[in-house]
C-alpha cells in the first residue's frame, strides 16, 4: 500500500533558468572587454597532452620580440616546467604558470588571477596555453579572441572525429610536428578531411616548431588576426 | 571530466534557488545539457547523487534534456506541492 502523503502527490514545477557556466561566461566577457580596451590580442591553445603546445609557444615567443610586448599564461596540474621553458624562449615576455591542482582545464577566473600585477596597457599579445585535454577546455570561454586547437601528426588522423567538440569550439586548427609526418606515417590529407568533416570550412595550418615551417603564417595570425 | 565540480556548482545553484523561494523541497532538477557543453549527463548524474549526500537535496534526481548548443542550464525544479 502506498502511503498517502505529500511525497506521492504530483510535484509542482518551478521555473528557474540559470546557466551553470554563467559565472565563467560573465568573467570571460569581462576579460575580453578589458583586453580589447587595452589593445591586447588574446590567443589560446588547446590540445591533448604532448601535442606540442609549449614547443609551439616557444617558437612563437622567440619570434614575437621587437616592438610587440607579450605575456604567456600556461596551465598544468602541477610543476612550473612550462613557464621555465617559455621564460627561456622569450626572456622579454611576462610568463606565469597556472597550476590547476586537480582541475582538468583553465577557467576565466584563473586567467584573471594569472594576469594580476600585469599592466595590460603595456601588452600587445597574450598567449594562453590550456591544460592538455581535448574534452573539458571546450566548455570554458577564457576571453580569448582566437582559439587554436592543435593536432600533432603522431596522434593519428582520426583525432578530430573522436573529439569533435574541441574542434567545434576552436577557431583554427594547427597540425603540429610536421617534420615527423613521414616517420609517423601520417596521412595529412586524411587528417585535413577529418577536420573538415567535423567542422566544415575550418582554417587549417601546418607547422613544425622544430624546423620553423609554417610558423611565420601562424605568427601573423596570432599577432594580427 | 569535470562533472564533479559542475555537480557542486549545480547543488549550490539549486540550494540558492530553493531557499530564495521559501525553502522548497526539491525532488528533481530539470537540466538542459548542450551537446557542445562537454558534459556527460551520466557522469553528471553520478557526481550529483554523491555530492547531494548529507545535503537537503539528498535523494533528488536529475532530469536532463539534450540540446544542440553549448548550454548547461537549470531549467526548473520539481518540488513538493
Q: Outline of this structure?
A:
The complex is a heterodimer of chains A (225) and B (81). In chain A, 35% of the residues lie in helices and 21% in strands. Chain A is α/β, with parallel strands linked by helices and 225 residues long.
Give keywords.
heterodimer; A: about 220 residues; alpha/beta; Rossmann fold; 7-stranded parallel beta sheet; 8 strands; B: about 80 residues; alpha+beta; hypothetical protein PF0899 fold; 3-stranded mixed beta sheet; about 35% helix
Estimate nothing, just give the exact number of structural domains of chain A: 1
**Strands across the major sheet of chain A, in which order?**
4-3-5-2-6-7-8
**What is the strand content of chain B?**
25-35%
Structure annotation, total helices of chain B: 2
Query: What's the N-to-C terminus distance of chain B?
Result: 35 Å
**Gap between N and C termini of chain A, in Å?**
69 Å
Q: Quick one: overall form of chain B?
A: globular
- Enumerate the strands of the largest sheet of chain B in spatial order, edge to edge or round the barrel: 2-1-3
Identify low-pLDDT runs of chain B. Answer: none
Question: How many DSSP E strands of chain A?
Answer: 8
β-strand amount of chain A: 15-25%
Mean pLDDT of chain B, as a whole number? 91
What name does the CATH topology of chain B carry? hypothetical protein PF0899 fold
Note down, in words, how this protein is organized.
The complex is a heterodimer of chains A (225) and B (81). Chain A has 9 helices and 8 strands. With 225 residues, chain A is an alpha/beta fold. Chain A has a 7-stranded parallel beta sheet with strand order 4-3-5-2-6-7-8, with helices on both faces. The longest helix of chain A is centred in the N-terminal third of the chain and has 16 residues, at 22-37. Chain A is globular. The mean pLDDT of chain B is 91. In chain B, strand 1, helix 2 (41-52) and strand 2 (61-67) form a beta-alpha-beta unit. Chain B is α+β, with helices and mostly antiparallel strands and 81 residues long. The chains are: A alpha/beta (225), B alpha+beta (81). At the A-B interface, strand 1 and helix 6 of A face helix 1, strand 1 and strand 3 of B. Strand 1 of chain A pairs antiparallel with strand 3 (72-79) of chain B, so a sheet runs across the interface.
Amino acid at each position: 500500500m502506498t502511503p498517502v502523503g505529500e511525497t506521492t502527490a504530483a510535484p509542482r514545477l518551478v521555473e528557474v533558468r540559470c546557466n551553470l557556466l554563467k559565472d565563467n561566461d560573465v568573467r570571460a566577457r569581462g576579460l575580453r572587454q578589458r583586453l580589447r580596451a587595452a589593445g591586447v590580442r588574446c590567443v589560446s591553445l588547446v590540445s591533448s597532452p604532448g601535442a606540442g603546445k609549449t614547443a609551439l609557444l616557444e617558437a612563437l615567443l622567440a619570434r614575437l620580440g621587437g616592438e610587440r610586448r607579450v605575456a604567456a599564461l600556461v596551465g598544468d596540474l602541477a610543476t612550473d616546467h612550462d613557464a621555465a621553458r617559455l621564460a627561456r624562449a622569450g626572456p622579454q615576455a611576462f610568463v606565469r604558470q597556472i597550476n590547476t591542482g586537480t582541475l582538468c582545464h583553465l577557467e576565466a577566473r584563473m586567467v584573471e588571477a594569472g594576469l594580476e600585477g600585469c599592466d595590460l596597457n603595456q601588452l600587445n599579445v597574450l598567449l594562453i596555453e590550456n591544460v592538455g585535454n581535448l574534452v573539458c577546455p571546450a566548455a570554458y570561454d577564457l576571453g580569448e579572441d582566437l582559439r587554436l586547437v592543435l593536432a600533432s601528426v603522431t596522434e593519428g588522423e582520426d583525432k578530430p572525429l573522436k573529439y569533435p567538440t574541441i574542434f567545434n569550439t576552436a577557431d583554427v586548427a594547427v597540425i603540429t610536428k610536421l617534420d615527423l609526418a613521414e616517420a609517423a606515417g601520417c596521412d595529412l590529407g586524411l587528417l585535413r578531411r577529418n577536420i573538415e568533416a567535423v567542422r566544415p570550412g575550418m582554417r587549417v595550418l601546418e607547422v613544425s616548431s622544430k624546423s620553423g615551417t609554417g610558423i611565420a603564417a601562424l605568427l601573423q595570425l596570432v599577432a594580427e588576426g | 571530466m569535470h562533472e564533479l565540480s559542475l555537480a557542486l556548482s549545480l547543488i549550490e545553484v539549486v540550494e540558492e534557488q530553493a531557499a530564495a523561494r521559501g525553502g522548497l523541497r526539491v525532488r528533481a532538477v530539470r537540466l538542459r545539457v548542450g551537446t557542445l557543453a562537454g558534459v556527460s549527463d551520466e557522469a553528471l548524474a553520478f557526481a550529483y547523487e554523491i555530492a547531494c549526500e548529507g545535503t537537503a537535496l539528498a535523494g533528488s534526481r536529475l532530469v536532463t534534456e539534450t540540446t544542440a548548443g553549448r548550454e548547461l542550464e537549470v531549467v526548473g525544479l520539481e518540488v513538493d506541492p
